[in-house]
Task: inverse folding
């Protein structure tokens, strides 16, 4: 039996007055790619926000355990230090915060947390330059303010750069494919595939199956009306593409 | 074992990574984060680096013809430069140090970025290193 790295049990979450997740159950296996698909408003983004501890969400029931410990009360930064990473659907622009300094501070905070030596400026830059090239990013982007004036594709590539530098253990990708042209989608997917090491787990939230041509999923979960209503292998994608989510109406 | 020239080339490569001169200087500060202090009894007139912009000390121990350097600086810049220079010169044979032309340190691409006062500090540091090297070689 494979290891469960993240377990979500009977999770109930409100945003404002509205109950979004209604007793959601999900287990992420070590080294596997889990994909969440579902109609608009089903709670996909709320789920990812809840795992990382976003301030928007109010957990009213259930639990999330990561490596056997409950993280439901943990601060977002502590979850990140422990190795949970999320790429934002809409990455924020932070004028005045240099992209390189931002990322180096984050990387060194995690390294310190793991008892590793901090990377000095040269070590960090060498590592980052290689990844920037692999991701097809323009060099000048790294010395600009975080995401400020970046195109949609550049922002998503920057999210992937952060992921690759931080070397997290659970990676949540919230619609990483939205707004990407074919080249960007390929570069981003290649970056994600490079992170697959048989240990890291992925939770890929998407509306479209096209990213799954590049990233091979192990499990497909259907999220509808705040609950996981179906879990199957990659073959489910084709069926969903044909039949949509109507088949779950009676379930 | 890395030669002095090779260490200088390694740092030249590192400094070339940064386009902005300020980032090069910041890298020196970064190197200073690994700086350690000397025991109080080793901080005396004979180890004091005369002419350094901020108080700094350097000890030189000769072991089988090799010079082992240990230093302490009091400013961020001095701490970084001491770490950098010790990485280049420490644990090298006295003969290798004496055969190396200190002018070649300019290949790192940072010496010209230092203020005149800091260039003087570098000079004072090097004088101390070469003095220890000569003693070790005799």
Result:
């Amino acid at each position: 039996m494979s290891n469960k790295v993240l377990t979500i049990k009977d999770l109930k979450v409100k945003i404002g007055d509205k109950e979004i997740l209604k007793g959601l159950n999900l287990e992420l296996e070590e080294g596997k790619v889990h994909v969440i698909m579902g109609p608009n408003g089903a709670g996909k983004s709320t789920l990812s926000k809840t795992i990382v501890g976003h301030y928007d969400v109010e957990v009213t029931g259930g639990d999330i355990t990561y490596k056997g410990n409950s993280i439901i009360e943990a601060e977002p930064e502590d979850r990140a230090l422990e190795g949970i990473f999320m790429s934002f659907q809409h990455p924020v622009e932070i004028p005045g915060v240099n992209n390189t300094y931002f990322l180096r501070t984050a990387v060194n905070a995690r390294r310190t947390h793991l008892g590793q030596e901090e990377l000095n400026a040269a070590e960090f830059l060498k590592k980052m330059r290689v990844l920037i090239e692999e991701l097809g990013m323009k060099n000048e982007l790294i010395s600009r303010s975080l995401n400020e004036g970046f195109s949609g594709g550049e922002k998503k590539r920057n999210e992937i750069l952060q992921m690759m530098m931080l070397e997290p253990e659970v990676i949540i990708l919230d619609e990483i494919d939205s707004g990407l042209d074919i080249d960007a989608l390929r570069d981003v997917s290649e970056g994600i595939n490079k992170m697959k090491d048989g240990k890291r787990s992925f939770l890929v939230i998407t509306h479209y199956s096209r990213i799954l041509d590049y990233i091979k999923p192990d499990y497909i979960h259907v999220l509808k009306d705040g609950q996981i209503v179906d879990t199957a292998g990659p073959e489910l994608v084709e069926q969903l593409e044909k039949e949509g989510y109507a088949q779950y109406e009676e379930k | 074992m890395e030669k002095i020239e090779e260490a200088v080339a390694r740092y030249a490569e590192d400094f070339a990574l940064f386009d902005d001169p300020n980032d090069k200087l910041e890298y020196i500060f970064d190197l200073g984060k690994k700086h350690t202090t000397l025991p109080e009894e080793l901080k005396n007139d004979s180890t004091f680096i005369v002419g350094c912009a901020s108080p700094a000390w350097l000890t030189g121990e000769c072991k089988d013809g090799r010079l082992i350097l240990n230093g302490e600086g009091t400013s961020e810049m001095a701490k970084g430069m001491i770490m950098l220079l010790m990485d280049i010169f420490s644990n090298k044979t006295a003969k290798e140090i004496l055969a190396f032309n200190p002018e070649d340190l300019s290949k790192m691409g940072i010496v010209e970025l230092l203020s005149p006062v800091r260039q003087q500090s570098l000079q004072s540091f090097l004088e101390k290193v070469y003095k220890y090297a000569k003693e070790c070689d005799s």
Observations:
- The first helix of chain A runs from residue 44 to 52.
- The radius of gyration of chain A is 18 Å.
